Amino acid sequence: MSEASTNSLVVLRGAQAEPALALSAAPLTHVARNPGAPFDTAWFDVLRVNQSAVERRTATLGTRRAVKKDAQAAWLLKAITCIDLTTLNGDDTEGRVRRLCAKARHPVRADLLAALGMAPEAIRTGAVCVYHRFVAAAVDALAGSGIPVAAVSTGFPAGLNPHALKLKEIEASVADGAAEIDIVITREHVLTGNWRALYDEVREFRAACGDAHLKAILATGDIRVLSNVAKASMVCMMAGADFIKTSTGKEGVNATLDVSLVMVRMIREYRERTGAMVGFKPAGGVSSAKAALAYQILMKEELGRPWLEPALFRFGASSLLADIERQLEHHVSGRYSAFHRHPVA
Q1: What is the tens place of the pLDDT at every residue in 132-178?
Q2: CA–CA gap between residue 163 and residue 68 (Å, rounded)
Q3: Residues 154, 183: contact at Cβ < 8 Å?
Q4: Fold topology of 68-341
Q5: CA distance 135 to 97
Q6: What per-residue string of b and e applies to 26-42 under the rule 16 or more CB within 10 Å gives b?
Q7: Residue ranges per domain, the chain?
Q8: For residue 157, is the peptide bond before it cis, meaning its omega torsion is within 30 degrees of 0?
Q9: CA distance 53 to 51
Q10: Which residues are annotated as catalytic?
């Protein structure tokens, strides 16, 4: 990308792509870790985001593409494989976490999968996401399934614990078997423009993760300004984040298509600069099948087919799975079922 286009991020152009999605396509099961890059303010210092262009672009995502009938069912089945099935409540118990893990293994009723021509073991969620306290129980419950456990860390959701404790929390979750660590950044670094401090923080988190993948939560509802979202995305990737994630789900405003577009454009920019493929995770507020389809279309059009696989795309969600299962039942039977007939945990 030219220096001019780098320095003025006008988020309007978009790669056009057909909406067809075949589950039989060879899945992208592994992506090389993002090694990061040396801190260089020239990569992001004068980034500017045209908010009107962002809004015009995202407004078309649900209108220019029509995914219906069998194609829609295929897209929704693919969406299930990209869900980080999540419970992050103050009243979580080991029993709830184990039920969630059972749902992750078998997220869709066997009769619905049979009607859709899918084998029972063909569909599972991308991961299960829990607090550190429940990592060991989740690892035990998912043993042999190949489903990774993700742990929220670094003083989630506020991220205001002492830095040394944040590192120890990461190390403890990795020791208990977490394969992915969802860290929260210190929002103050973004709000005050202290980009070097943000880089150093995430770099140390990355080192503490060892072989576990690092997913950096930007808490976009707190940092608000789209230009800051773009800069924070780039700095976290430079520091070695394997995924960038919109939200904790605990902010007043969580995942939106506008901030997601800015973040995926930064992923594209980072790949053009380094060749590294970084994943994206919208989290918080993605609770309907319709919303999931919009995010999938965003990924397909902006980054291409590989970013529709769980190796590079995840939804952070708890109630999304139930709505997708309801839509699949409607596709099979022609009737909608009650939401409570599709419990998650």
Answers
A1: 999 999 999 999 999 999 999 999 999 999 999 999 999 999 999 99
A2: 48
A3: yes
A4: TIM Barrel (3.20.20)
A5: 9
A6: eebeebeebebbeeeee
A7: 68-341
A8: yes
A9: 5
A10: 182, 245, 281
